[in-house]
Amino acid sequence: MSEVETASEDRRKYEFRKVIEELQEFEGSGTQLVTIYIPEEKLLSDVVAHVTQEHSEASNIKSKQTRTNVQDALKSIKDRLRYYDTTPKHGMVLFSGAVNTGGGRSDMVTRVLESPPTPIQSFRYHCDSDFLTEPLEGMLEDKGMFGLVVLDRREANVGWLKGKRVEAVKSAESLVPGKQRKGGQSAQRFARLRLEAIDNFYQEVAGMANDLFVSKRHELDGVLVGGPSPTKDEFIDGDYLHHELQDQVLGKFDVAYTDESGLKDLVDSASEVLADQEIVQDKRQMEEFFENLNTGQEATYGFDRTRRNLIMGAVDRLLISEDLREDVITYVCDEGHEDYELLDTRHDTPEDHECSECGHSAEVSEREDAIEHLMTIAEQRGSETKFISTDFEKGEQLYDAFGGIAGILRYDSGI
Predict the structure, then answer these.
(1) What is the rounded CA–CA span in Å between residue 2 and residue 24?
(2) Which of 147, 332, 382, 395 lies in disulfide reach of 365, CB 3.0 to 4.6 Å?
(3) pLDDT digits (tens, 9 = 90+) for 46-104
(4) Whole domain around residue 59: which residue ranges?
(5) Residues 225, 269: one domain?
(6) pTM
């Protein structure tokens, strides 16, 4: 996939994610929010016939308000389907219904999502108090799934690397005694009991991993095992894991910690094996950004500075936190000066603003999504956009310390 195609795919995924988050906020009174998933091979004439049938059967709903709302939603969906001759690539999803707006009032909303990231597998009609978004959420999950195991002789943690997310799932603490035996025990007997305890603990850890990974073994891209030597070597060489998982072990890696943080350390240690995975690519982007920042050159951060560098064409890669959810407000004063301000998407637009250049009162000219605002400039200037996960330390720093917006520059712009 070319860089242009990748950028287009990233933007499309972001736009899909935004719509899904909006749909998840909607709530209806009773089962009156309609969701329809349509696979690419489904004839739209069959879908229209199904919607017509559901509209007819909705006349049997006892509640007049629910009956009216469901039929209005189905009519809206039917009207939207008239604009299509064929089903879009990968299919489409339609959402329609009367959503609560507070104070006992409701508004009819209808949304259509065309060509999702992966094909819709089957036709589905769903009517409930919430829109059905889970299948779409699954499509937006980052690619790549690895089983993670970290252990020493004291504790163990088992979890997942799914795309950019490291997820701890199961943990265990061992009953392995220390190396010093208690009084009254022979050295030989103590050593034997200790080896039995170690073996039992390894079996417990393998049981956790088998329970978690075996059912997903056909979806797994591999299993990573970490810990100090000789623990990880004993665990793998002892064939404790299910034989199908044993064949999927990609390597053993030195990891100092075996608590939940050890799972992230394991991903770091296995970076060469995971070179093509998105979380490793994110880390490399952030490492380059911090290296440039430390030298005082070819790095920018914050909305205003990054935007100005983008307009100059100085930004090679625009780095945006996946957790960023802000709008940009554009103000214009009587003198024609423009000001920009970031605002959480949940907050109302401020009415008063003083121009930073001349001090005159400025009015709101436009409010738009901050990410789309920056991505549009980036596309015009030939800059790449990279979405950075917060599932690692430097990714968290991008969001917490730099406002979720930064850039790696082509040259030192002096801004």
Answers:
(1) 33
(2) 332
(3) 999 999 999 999 999 999 999 999 999 999 999 999 999 999 999 999 999 999 988 88
(4) 3-139
(5) yes
(6) 0.76
